[in-house]
Each structure stands twice: as structure tokens, then as C-alpha cells.
Amino acid sequence: MVGVAHFIGGQVAGFFAPYSWAVQYSFASSFFWMVVIITLIGVIFSFTKIRRLDHVGASKIGTVFIFILIAAIGMQINLAGIVSQWRLLLIGLLWMSIHVVIIFAVARIIRAPFFFLAVGSNANTGGASSAPIVATAFHPSLAPVGVFLGILGYAVGTFGGYISTQLMRLVVG
User: Fold this and answer.
1) What distance in Å separates the CA atoms of residue 131 and residue 145, rounded to the nearest whole number?
2) Contact 144, 111 (CB under 8 A)
3) In terms of pTM, does the model score above 0.70?
4) Is 13 exposed, middle or buried (0-12, 13-18, 19+ CB in 10 A)?
5) Tens of each residue's pLDDT in the chain, 173 residues
6) In whole angstroms, what is the distance from residue 48 CA to residue 62 CA?
7) What are the Cα distances from residue 48, in Å, to 26, 42, 146?
8) 2/36 Cα distance (integer angstroms)
9) Minimal CA–CA distance to 132: which of 53, 24, 35, 60?
């Protein structure tokens, strides 16, 4: 499906390429469209019988690819950039502080057990690869809840991240 999303993403990006406003909002980026399309395909497939592939090891293969992706990103990091871009580190700390305040406030308002606080927070920051591990620490039968919250975090994060990027672009001006 990634190959299909890659092909369709290239076609859609090509359609938007002549428009200057589309470049500003990433609509002319094939990578942007690939991520959006593969997220939508994943959510749609979760409502079909294809979701049963998880029982034959699809999530284990997916976890391997997530580790490969993280390693590939890590190989390109420039640690000296932390010193030169210290303001971005502060923004990240502020963002995580807001996350913690919201998670605790919502948990208190709805009187959620600590389990949902820990797994929900991890699903938002770590995703489907680590949320089931946190859920299993509470009870082995809760692993599917961790998977669900992690996948939901990916889907919401894809679109929420794009919206956040556009809001930051408005602030910068």
C-alpha cells in the first residue's frame, strides 16, 4: 500500500505543482500526499478483514520497519544542531509540558484510571510500537488497548501535525 500511496501521492503533487499557494501548504509535496494517503488507507483497512493480518505477524514486521525508520532518521541527526537551535529544544519542552498538563487535566475530569493516563500519553508520543508495552505492564490482556490507542495517535497525529505546522507558519508570518 505504501507503493500505491507513493504513486498516487506523486500524481496528486504533480497536479498541485503549478500553483504557488499549494507549494506553501505542502500540497505540491509527494511525501505529504504519501503520508496522508497511507494514513487514510490504514484507517480504512482497520474496518475490513485485512485487520486480521495482525494475528499472522504483520505488527511484528511493522515494528521492524519502524525501528529501521527511526535508525535512518537517527543516522542523519546533527547533535551540534542542539546547541545552535536551542530555541527549538525549548519549544519541544514547552510542547511536552502542555501535553502533560492536558493529559493530567483530562484524566482528572473524566476520572480515568492511571492506566489510560500512561497508555494514552505514550500512544501520543511513542505510538503503536511502545503503547502496547506500557499497556502490558498493567495487564497482558490490555495490549490491544495499547495498540488501538497507538494507531489512533498515529492517525490523529498525522493530521494534527499538519494543522500545527500551518498554525506555526501563521505565527512566524
Assistant:
1) 9
2) no
3) no
4) buried
5) 888 999 999 999 999 999 888 888 888 999 889 988 988 888 888 788 887 776 677 667 777 777 777 777 777 777 777 788 888 888 889 988 998 898 889 889 999 888 888 888 887 777 776 777 788 888 778 778 787 878 887 888 888 888 888 888 888 86
6) 18
7) 31, 10, 20
8) 11
9) 60
User: What's the distance, CA 151 to chain centroid?
Assistant: 8
C-alpha cell at 1: 500500500
> Residue 103 — φ and ψ, nearest 5°?
-60, -45
Q: Which runs of consecutive H residues, i.e. helices, occur in 2-130?
A: 2-16, 20-24, 30-45, 58-75, 80-84, 86-110, 114-125
Contact (Cβ atoms closer than 8 angstroms) between residue 33 and residue 13: yes
Q: Which of 39, 45, 50, 47 is nearest to 154 (CA)?
A: 39
Cell of residue 150, nine digits: 497507538
CA distances from 147 to 40, 68, 93, 102, 154 (A): 17, 19, 26, 21, 11
* Residue 6, all three cell numbers: 507513493
The DSSP symbol for 48 reads S
Give the SS3 label for residue 138. helix
